[in-house]
Specification:
mainly alpha; 6 helices
Length: about 140
């Protein structure tokens, strides 16, 4: 028997618990998300200013699918594809939840990011069409 195993046997016999190397499952509570709603929206907006919304949503969807199948390492690899600091802030918040054993809140965070991106894109399109309508009215008045 090795000296390390003798110590662990002695500790078990004495009723002592060995320290776990795993992080505590209760270190993050679902009631206190790592990012507030306004912070999430701001980070999504800043990220999609620097990258196409389609790429952003594609990465988030693939990471969401990986978390759904309990493949946290795969989700980490997928989220590492984008190196923007704002994107990494979003992804690290989701991965922190997943690693703490809270996959559902992590998946919800990724899903919210996708929704906010769609919402921002839709707002942008509406503003663009409103602008085109104003130009059309202004041009029509001149003629």
């Amino acid at each position: 028997m090795t000296p390390a195993s003798k110590r662990s046997t002695k500790n078990r016999k004495a009723g002592r618990r060995l320290k776990s190397r795993r992080p505590s499952r209760n270190s993050l509570s679902p009631q206190s998300p790592p990012l507030s709603d306004s912070e999430t929206r701001l980070l999504v907006r800043r990220t999609t200013e620097r990258m196409r919304p389609e790429r952003f949503i594609s990465i988030m969807m693939r990471a969401h699918d990986a978390l759904k199948s309990n493949r946290i390492a795969r989700a980490t690899a997928i989220l590492a594809e984008c190196r923007l600091k704002t994107f990494q802030t979003l992804s690290s918040a989701a991965l922190k939840l997943a690693r703490a054993g809270q996959r559902i809140p992590a998946m919800n965070l990724l899903f919210e990011c996708e929704l906010y991106c769609y919402e921002d894109t839709l707002d942008h399109i509406r503003a663009f069409f409103a602008y085109l309508d104003r130009i059309g009215v202004a041009i029509g008045k001149r003629r």
